[in-house]
Amino acid sequence: MASKAWCGSAILLALLFTIVKPSYGGITSKYVRKAQPSIDMPLKDYPPPKGYNAPEQVHITQGDHTGRAIIISWITPVEPTPDTVTYWPAKEPCEKKVAKASTITYKYYTYTSGYIHHATIKELEYDTKYFYEIACDESVRQFHFSTPPAPGPDVPYTFGIIGDLGQTYASKETLSHYISNKNAQAMLFLGDLSYADDYPNHDNVRWDTWGRLVERSVAYQPWIWTPGNHEIDFDQDIGEIEPFKPYNHRCPTPYKASGSTSPLWYSVKRASAYIIVLSSYSAYGKYTPQYQWLEKEFPKVNRSETPWLIILVHSPWYNSNGYHYMEGETMRVQFEKWVVQNKVDLVFAGHVHSYERSFRISNIKYNITNGLSFPVNDSSAPMYFTLGDGGNIEGLAAEFSAPQPEYSAFREASFGHAILDIKNRTHAHFTWHRNQDDKPVAADSTWVFNRYWFAQDETNCKLPA
Ligand SMILES: [Fe+2]
């Protein structure tokens, strides 16, 4: 009788194991954020700077391929001047120089932009602090930035990473938490900036309010821009058929310096990192300009100069959330083979409003008919991160698939930001900071070992955080 019962239990257990496949280590965080409405801050919370025609929405981005140039942008709401910026090295205040901007405006439905100025300053010294000043009769606005060290294999450098920021109370919290970290030197921004297109007729006033919101960071350190779907602003019903019109007018990129033919995809070197920005919403099939550019781009990367190869893209290639599920799949199919062949270290994406980190996996053997449709461990593959958790008006994406896929190392539906701290050619440390009420809390972290110089498995790493 007892042996019959044992036999029955054993069969039941075996049956259970065939139905429920155990996961090998992925974590779905149990943290549940206090429910807060994702609402944009009212217009009155974004006052323009004081003074008639005061320059506003000041922002900077890298202006060349190597880090010796910067593009300074600002908007004057009423008059086309000031269209010049004065700048000088912090250590040599008498060495003032003036750069003239190119000035543009654009119309979007019934909205007319202010005067948008972009000044490219070249031949700066590496690793140097500069002040810059934009002045008109009633307002003098002064900011500063630091150029990166010259590209080199063991140059430490710290990047911030934010995606899908928007302009809600949570967005402001994310930004404040990021700014409170004094180590971060430049931002890798993963797309979806203002969410103005969630307003009737894509109310472009919300592009202006966003510019005012982020100025406190982006006027002082370059944000490397990636385009997202909320930058497309295509709306045939109101006659707006030029994709990326507000974004392209407001957020210039140094795309020509990397041989790109579009501001939407390009690359920059910064310290020990080589950063490739891709556009999820531009053609990337074989023979397209983006495909051809990327094919030529990988052979240009010299890992002895810039060991860290990083890709920024808006729509994730690996993500286990129901929100935007598989939207990045066609680009993954198109480019993953190159990414693995070239030992890309990290791929950062946004779009899905939660956080997720993958193990190093690839799925390049899949050809639709061979049945090899599951990702496998691959030590030449990058880690994939989804960081669409800046805190925008559309709220959190909390519906993760169950069970957690084996490729998923950690996932959590909270807002937050991340820091990538490159130590040398072999080691970097990544930390994701959730917005836990009013505090940034380091909720996930990992050492990252460089794929070219130190291709060890991080999952067994016992190094202290
Ligand atoms: Fe998006």
Automatic annotation (TrEMBL):
Keyword entries, A-Z: Glycoprotein, Hydrolase, Iron, Metal-binding, Signal, Zinc
Reactions catalysed according to its record: a phosphate monoester + H2O = an alcohol + phosphate
Residue stretches making up the Purple acid phosphatase N-terminal domain: 55-147
GO molecular function: acid phosphatase activity; metal ion binding
EC numbers on record: 3.1.3.2
Domain Purple acid phosphatase C-terminal, first and last residues per copy: 381-438
Signal peptide (UniProt feature, chain positions): 1-25
Residue ranges of domain Calcineurin-like phosphoesterase in the record: 158-355
Domain of life: Eukaryota
Cofactor(s) needed by this chain: Zn(2+); Fe cation
Family statement drawn from the similarity comment of this UniProt entry: Belongs to the metallophosphoesterase superfamily. Purple acid phosphatase family.
PANTHER family the record matches: ACID PHOSPHATASE RELATED, PURPLE ACID PHOSPHATASE 11-RELATED
Protein's name in the database: Purple acid phosphatase
Lineage of origin: Eukaryota, Viridiplantae, Streptophyta, Embryophyta, Tracheophyta
